[in-house]
Amino acid sequence: MNFAPELISYSQKVCALYKTAMRLIESHYYPRYVIRYHQILLRKRFDDNKSVCDPKEQRRLLWVGEHEAFMKKNPVFLGRFSKSMGRAGGIAFERVVEPPDWVMDYWHPLEKAQYPDYFETRECRKIEYIKKWQAGIIY
Fold first, then answer.
1. Is the pTM of this model over 0.85?
2. Burial state string for 33-45 with b = 16 or more CB within 10 A and e = fewer than 16
3. Smallest Cα–Cα separation from 62: which of 19, 110, 18?
4. Is there a contact between 9 and 55 (Cβ–Cβ < 8 Å)?
């Protein structure tokens, strides 16, 4: 087994910092033109330091950037990713609303006629459910 930590290059760390900073800007501001304005300012800051060749200065700039991103982290980060789909506040939380079962009781008979097997089985199950409820099996 290999227990060596994954090596990440300096450029990968800078790209990750840039992406993190962009997401932080999106979580701090709402109007799209304000977000874009701050993203352009951020890009200029990264471009200004693109030509730094001294490894010591690069590490210092990276640390300063990571520290600044940490300090500006929004406590109420808006979930925007697929991992947050099932969680409250996620991008797709309760997107698909499942109608309650009683809605089908109000279907028109012509609509029910299109699915005779389904509604026949459904009526039998409703009768079974009512009998179990009356017997005290279902609360």
1. no
2. eebeebeeebeee
3. 18
4. no
